[in-house]
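Crash report, auto-generated. Payload:
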Amino acid sequence: MTDQETKTFDIVFEGVGTSTGKMRNDIKVHFVTMDETFDLATDEGPFHGGDGTAPPPLALFNAALTGCIMTQIRAFSKRLKVPIGKVTVKCRMHWRGEQVGREPYTTGPVGFDLDIDFDSPASTEDQLRLLEASKKGCFIETTLMQGLEVGHRLQIDGDWIDA
Amino acid sequence: MTDQETKTFDIVFEGVGTSTGKMRNDIKVHFVTMDETFDLATDEGPFHGGDGTAPPPLALFNAALTGCIMTQIRAFSKRLKVPIGKVTVKCRMHWRGEQVGREPYTTGPVGFDLDIDFDSPASTEDQLRLLEASKKGCFIETTLMQGLEVGHRLQIDGDWIDA
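Recovered output after restart:
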């Protein structure tokens, strides 16, 4: 029970990717909420037809999840008064693909696992409390947990059609 | 019905993130399957207590999803013989956070939307077929679609405990 005020806030990112190299994509990401822009890129290695000029998309995804949970850990450490030292997070992501003949492959996740070391003098109970809050605050983890059907529109002859 | 052989393949990424700056994390991502390593970093802007030395985690996430669907589009264009020109993908991600007083905030997705332009002379039917295959091949989109509970372990006094 609390009589404290509940606030909500929105976080919006809009990226625009364009194909540049054989498999390279240059992506301008606009953090709409803060009006900041970041220039990012992905590529694939020669095995997948690319030139290896940038990390593959899944490397960015791995760093994104790792960095996102670490941001929450560090922000909430102060709020919950659970001291931490040098935080280390190992993030393992495993997918499996399936391909029939030469048809396009289909994919799905096998499992994602985070091994976390707070380097903390706090009690086990306090460390678990910090981790629990961090999971619930991590934008990527809560999205994965909830699941999400991405919406798609396709531009055909100048019109946008739901796809 | 097909008598073509079905193959499966595994894709594994392992990142290790360490806290470096105030909110900066340096993350070494190992693409285990191909034995390639990528040095990435995230930071936060001053508003969230960081120094803005690298993109925030959600900017990497946005570029990852955008780049991943674009990789599939370009790979499958050839296999499905659906010609494409300069591909452009706009990826909008919207989350909402909620905070009671000064407690740690909780977060959840509102919606993710992809607007895709293949710049293609192909029929609408063929373009839709290419998009459908790309959705099913995109590692990130199929993970979001399925939903996933991330596993966690916490290091306490040298032991790993499930958390």
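Post-recovery validation: Chain A has a mean pLDDT of 96.
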